[in-house]
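User: Need the bound-state model for pyridoxal-5'-phosphate:
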Amino acid sequence: MSGDGPRLRDDLSELVGYHSPDVDVDVRLNTNESPYPPPRGFVDALAGAAPRIAYNRYPDREARVLRAAIAASIGVDPGSVWAGNGSNEVIQVLLLAFGGSQRRALVFAPTYSMHTKIAEATATAVVTEARDADFTVDAAAVEDACVRHRPDIVFFCSPNNPTGTLEPHDAVTVAAADSRRLVIVDEAYAEFCDETAVGMVATHPNVVVVRTMSKAWSMPALRLGYLVAPPELVRALTPAHLPYHLNAFTQEAGRLALDYGAEMRTRVALAREERGRLYAELAACEGVRVWPSAANFLLFEVEGGPGRAGAVWEGLVRRSVLVRDFASNATTPGCLRVTVGTPEENTRFLAALRDALAEVRP
Ligand SMILES: *Cc1c(COP(=O)(O)O)cnc(C)c1O
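Assistant: Bound-state model below.
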């Protein structure tokens, strides 16, 4: 803000918010959403539950029923689960509790930009280290970065957005070796792969796994995310979050959604199949390099540098296909990220990409 208005915090005035260009297109493959709505049975059950909510009362502050249901679905103790309005709020509360002006967070780029933005909004210092050429982080590099920066918080993202790579188990273990350090593993896409760090929570007092209902569960509109952490750590969050932060409707929605796990797994299986097809077809495109992905999206590089990749992105938009443009980011030069859509959407994307590549010669 400028002029006569209220003075924005000095440390925020330089920062820009989350920004993903929103263009009106037929095929939206830019935000890693599910192309399918949640099951009809869930939507009907939620509508049926709506009249029974006690709207004149505050919701259960502890979200006990929801947390017990989430805990049962992943095989942990209810006291190990805490839920919030999307995993972004969960991460914000973690940073409010464990970050702040005297603390430093470490991230490995390229990764989910919200980790840095949430840290900055909570006045937490951020140091950024580069990933390897294959976008992984090895344990030795993590150890070295921890020695040099002495971070209070280390972020991992597994599978990592936007690269689709998994964080090696020993890299997370090394970061967690100092029990005073908080290690956050963002598993927004865990359902699309066979690996999780949830098992580490039982053996490490300082490891937190963050999950969301926004991707595999097809309900980003309802804003529900959760964390799995040692119960002591969950209790420590209380002063950092608002009372009654999670509304009764969202609590009910989350509880009901968990009854449709089989349907979620069917959607995920289809996405994994289509991911395999997209990977093979992208790998077969001349002048395209694609990375293996454990999530519902693929990162690929367009030969010819950021300029050509940007032109290919525009060529896709002209064909009414929207993907995410990472071409001018320093750590992902020339790269675009495509979300796995329906089989029809994926076929349309591939055809549009071939045309756009032919149109913009290297
Ligand atoms: C999409 C995404 C989220 C989801 O955030 P919500 O607030 O739960 O919608 C979290 N982390 C990563 C890495 C993501 O890509």
